[in-house]
Amino acid sequence: MIKEFKYGGQTIYNVTAQQLSDMGFLRSDIDAALKTQEAADVDFNRRLAYRTDSDPLYMEWQYDQTEIKEKAWRAKVEEIKARYPLSGE
Predict the structure, then answer these.
(1) Quick check: 7 pLDDT over 90?
(2) Does residue 88 have a pLDDT over 80?
(3) Is the CB of residue 28 less than 8 Å from the CB of residue 11?
(4) Fewer CB within a 10 Å sphere, N or C end of the chain?
């Protein structure tokens, strides 16, 4: 699902690639929109995982200042990066 497809000053919301194809849009434009949507989804999911998974571990480390807490936090950050890789990584 493409949440927002912009083309020639027009915006179409919540549409599938097949629907765009049926409307006559070029495959290259559809592919570009899919790639943009995938990048936005990865960014959103990564930020959410940081907030819910790694930030609490970071706060625990800041409070305890132990090496074990620091390692747990850093391991979680690496796990999130592996789960939601950015296109340049």
Answers:
(1) no
(2) no
(3) no
(4) C
Q: What confidence tier does 87 reach under pLDDT thresholds 50, 70, 90?
A: confident
- Which residues partner with 5 through β-bridges? 12
For residue 34, give the nearest of 46, 18, 48 by alpha carbon: 18
Report how far residue 59's alpha carbon sits from residue 15's, in angstroms, rounded to the nearest whole number: 40
Name 10's Cβ contacts closer than 8 Å, sequence gap at least 6. none
pTM above 0.85, yes or no: no
Mean local confidence (pLDDT), 49-65: 96
CA 67 to centroid of chain Cα atoms: 30
Q: DSSP assignment of 2-52, as one string?
A: EEEEEETTEEEEEE-HHHHHHTT--HHHHHHHHHHHHHHHHHHHHHHHIII
Q: What is the spatial distance between Cα 44 and Cα 37, in angstroms, rounded to a whole number?
A: 10
